[in-house]
Amino acid sequence: MSHKQPDLDLSPDVSDEVRKTTCYMCACRCGINVHMKKGKVAYIEGNRDHPVNQGVLCAKGSAGIMQHNAPSRLRAPMKRVGDRGEGKFEEISWDEAYDIAAGWLKPIRENDPSKLAFFTGRDQSQSFTSLWAQSFGTPNYAAHGGFCSVNMAAAGIYTMGGAFWEFGQPDWDHTKLFMLFGVAEDHDSNPIKMGIGKIKARGARVIGVNPIRTGYNAVADDWVGITPGTDGLFILSMIHCLMKAGKIDFHYLAQYTDAAVLLNGDEKSPDYGLKLRDEQGKDLVIDRTTGKPAPFDRKGVRPDLTATHRAQGVTHRPVFHRMLEMYLDPRYAPEAVAETVGISAARIRRLAAELARVAFDEAFELDQEWTDFRGETHQKMTGRPVSFHAMRGISAHANGFQTCRALHTLQILLGTVEVPGGFRFKPPYPKPATAHPRPHTGMTPGAPLNGPHLGFVHGPEDLALKEDGSPARIDKAFTWENPMSVHGLMHMVISNAHAGDPYKIDTLFMYMANMSWNSSMNTTGVQEMLTDRDESGEYVIPHIIYSDAYSSEMVAYADLILPDTTYLERHDCISLLDRPICEADAVADAIRWPVVEPDRNVKGFQSALCDLGARLGLPAFVNADGSQKYADYADYIIHHERRPGIGPLAGWRTGEAGLQAGRGGVNESQIENYIANGGFFAEHIPDAAKYYKPWNMAYQGWAVKMGLFDAPQPYLFTLYSEPLRRFQRAAEGHGDRQPPDHLRARIIEKMSPLPIWYETDQHGNDGYTISALTQRPMAMYHSWGSQNAWLRQLHGRNPMYLPTKLMRANDLADGDWAEITSPHGSITVPVMEMAALNENTIWTWNAIGKRKGAWALDKDAPEATRGFLLNHLIHELLPPRGDGLRWANSDPITGQAAWFDLKVALRKVAAPADGQSRPAMPPLASPVGTGPDKLAWKVGE
Question: What is the structure's pLDDT at 558?
């Protein structure tokens, strides 16, 4: 008797339509195909044609359907009806919400715009939100970079004109040795996974430097479990080894960097230690052909790394001499640093030797002619197949700026930046720091600010100070305390506003920044600041406006809620003016568009700003007759021009012969053009322009054509940072603008023009000897991931991971509980053993722990009972020194939050009787209630 096989439909219809847009579940900005069935989202997959992910999609991206349907979504504008922190709200109309906001904001603008602090979180529209703030006139604007990545960005741009993250990528097609520093899995995950897969398939090696071995470090061929905060010392020790061995690219240094630029050697000169320049302001080098000083970019000049210049009894030496003196010092020898960095001297030498071997012994050439900025034509491009990548792990320390500069210096000494096989910039980078604006704080009541808020300072004259020398900004960015804080200090805004230091504000306006929970240091303290009242019974921070798509912890602390959409319901612009999706071989940007219309009374935050800007009469948002200029954000994307012919999107602009890329006029159908092309635009860089971008005239000309900048701007990499030296000179007593006396020694010590390493501020940490870190898992990026039912199955709770040594020393086993204490606070949490971990470091996943009542989670949800935050142990201020000053827990140069300098002690304790982690805060009232017990739906039935 034959067996009849069942009739199965092996290829069921997933959808009746596919709509292509851009993912929003992390900073990758991958292309996605959103499958629709009967008008609803049925399935999300990667877009194979997209330049970023080429069809690859991670767990976060696939789970975006859950994000879109999350029960925690806000439903309508709301005003607070209870006390702050209770979470009691009343739904109102958008008109009433705008009236309330305008009622608070209009008097501020007319009398003192600095009373508004407008700060945004992980949005990707900062060119737009900064325009709004500039038009309002407040000096108080920034995004989340100050507590995330500013050390990396600032160090890279000041040194090379670009950095890691969205600024560049390894040359995956040619790299033979890839070294990562401090890289977790949450950022840029798909491109890095694809790249690592590609190079490992070719037999290339991967070296991971990280105290924690997870993710990329778990698949590395060699894992270096460094002591947290010592990466800079480790890097400088490898530089010491390379210099002693003569394994550096002398030609590259002379031709493309300031290594040959002469420094003023006259100790009596106010310009001592600054670069020598000619009458046109060009850096001077010694030409090997003539033996005389010459401008660095003169045709035919051969810069000499070794020659000196004697004039009027003073010897002026090149930067390279200073570097040799500094880094050949025995204090950087592997034997001198091994104990501090936790890596043996022999291993440091082996790693340095491996970098040199691959860079020089495996060098190769591409048959590609190119012409440099001195007019010399080269027949080939030399490849050095060593590349690096780094992220928050080395950045979020109080020595992070100099550490990041040290890593860039290592790349440059090996000649591996912008060459085949090395690290390559993504358009619109590279751009030198001098090509960026300087910060502006010129404020006039009832008028726009006098320029962009954020920028790059080049000396004390650029600081954001009032006439009396006090800070002009609420976060104290661009002051003597944090001179080069190019992203602002978002983590200090609430603390400073509460303390009235440097002044009081009236309205705190925030977007997608969970500052009452996982985005703040000192979480409990911040909640108290947000709810604190003065002697009259009024809130110390009088008004708080907040916008989010979800019922986060921060919602409960606001007075007015402007509900945002999900990413599938909105227009967005991933712009060349902001954080584009470019690749090293192509310029690219992208959009999001409403693949579904909202089923709630919500509005994209940027569209709400268009409405609110018009109500306030902000010049950038009204026409000459006072009418609203942009109907919504989509209207802005199409019609706004930052300068003639340059708008938010580079694709499908109008020209005399039709549609064109880069520069061009407004195209009313531009968004439709993007939608028809899968939601993105890309144009490849010509072959002759793909490498040596800062010095390659083919690239410079192409970049001008594309509107990346208005004229060619070749420049030298700056190993020696003159802005840092200018601040040192001021601290030494030179110049009209002087720092306060209590900061002079710190500025002289920390702001070295050549990269250095120093211990982070350990004041008050006596007895706290264990490093404590957090990082995000690959399956989550933002705190919003915790309401995603699929991802919660992967990370519904988080233990504290301890190395074997600490587990044994404290008689701990998996599932036991420990009390973790810092100078600031304590937490009681479950522990698990992890062998692949620096032996004096503990860590946990970030943003898993949730406050009861938030995110529409059940009160017994594991995130709210067993999940926890390290934030309770971290303070935005360093322990008091007895001098009455408030010292920020930040990098003293850029102000980046020093999250990873946390030191703790631990002891075994009994499990709490209720099995819940501590501190256990009372639940918040939720304006959206609690989600269903079972979250399930079937689309199309």
Answer: 98
pLDDT reported for residue 242:
98
Secondary structure of residue 209 in the 3-state scheme: strand
Token digits of residue 413: 């000494």
**Residue 303 class from Cβ within 10 Å (0-12 exposed, 13-18 middle, 19+ buried)?**
buried
On whether the CB atoms of residues 164 and 188 are closer than 8 A, the answer is no
Q: Of 382, 387, 361, whose CA–CA distance to 370 is shortest?
A: 382
Terminal C-alpha separation, the chain:
38
CA dihedral 180, 185, 190, 192 (to 10 degrees): 0
**What is 231-274 written as a DSSP string?**
HHHHHHHHHHHHHHHT-S-HHHHHHHBGGGBEE---TTSTTTTS
Average pLDDT, the chain: 95
**Other beta carbons less than 10 A from residue 470's beta carbon:** 12
pLDDT tops 90 at residue 223: yes
> Is the pLDDT score of 165 beyond 90?
no
CA quadruple 594, 598, 604, 609: dihedral, nearest 10: 120
User: Is 697 within 8 Å of 372 (Cβ atoms)?
Assistant: yes
Residue 580 CA from chain centroid, whole number: 13
Q: pLDDT category, 8, cuts 50, 70, 90?
A: confident
The pair phi, psi for residue 3, each rounded to 5°, is: -95, 125
Q: Which residues pair with 561 in a beta bridge?
A: 78, 546
Q: Given a cut of 80, is residue 505 above it in pLDDT?
A: yes
Closest C-alpha among 56, 45, 37 to residue 21: 45
Q: Going by DSSP bridges, is the β-strand pair 903-909/770-775 parallel, antiparallel, or unpaired?
A: antiparallel
> What is the arithmetic mean of pLDDT over 410-425?
98
Specify the DSSP element, H or E, that contains 303.
Answer: none
Q: Quick count: other Cβ atoms within 10 Å of Cβ 71? A: 18
Instruction: Note the pLDDT tens digit of each residue in 19-67.
Output: 999 999 888 899 999 999 989 999 999 999 999 999 999 888 999 998 8
Judged against a pLDDT cut of 80, whether residue 3 lies above it is answered with: no
What's the rounded Cα separation, in Å, for the pair 19 and 22? Answer: 10
What is the Cα 836 distance to its own chain's centre? 27
- pTM, two decimals, is 0.97
Nearest alpha carbon to residue 388 among 163, 690, 51, 695: 163
Residues 6+ apart with CB under 8 A from 157: 163, 167, 429, 431, 432, 433, 436, 456, 486
Residues 599 and 213: their CA atoms lie apart, in Å, by 43
Q: Choose among 420, 440, 418: nearest CA to 429.
A: 418
Percentage of the chain modeled with pLDDT above 70: 99
> Which whole number is the average pLDDT over 281-307?
96
Q: What average pLDDT does the segment 551-571 reach?
A: 97
On the CB side of 664, how many CA atoms lie within 13 Å of its CA?
A: 20
> What's the angle, vertex CA 144, arms to CA 138 and CA 149, rounded to 5?
130
pLDDT, position 786: 67
DSSP strand E in 103-176: where? 116-120, 141-142, 168-170
Give the other-Cβ count within 10 Å of 936's Cβ: 6
Torsion of CA 106, 109, 114, 120, to 10 degrees: 60
DSSP class of residue 864? H
Helices (H), 170-329: 189-201, 215-218, 231-245, 250-256, 319-327
Residues in the chain, overall count: 941
The residues with which 43 forms a beta bridge, in sequence order, are 35
Q: What is the DSSP string of 674-690?
A: HHHTTSEEEEEPPGGGS
Give the DSSP H/E element, type plus range, for residue 144: none
Closest CA to 177 of 226, 221, 213, 216: 221
User: Taking residues 216-230, what's their average pLDDT?
Assistant: 96
Cβ atoms of 525 and 875 closer than 8 Å: yes
Q: Copy the structure tokens of residue 42.
A: 């049925």
Residue 773's Cβ-side half-sphere holds a number of Cα atoms within 13 Å equal to: 30
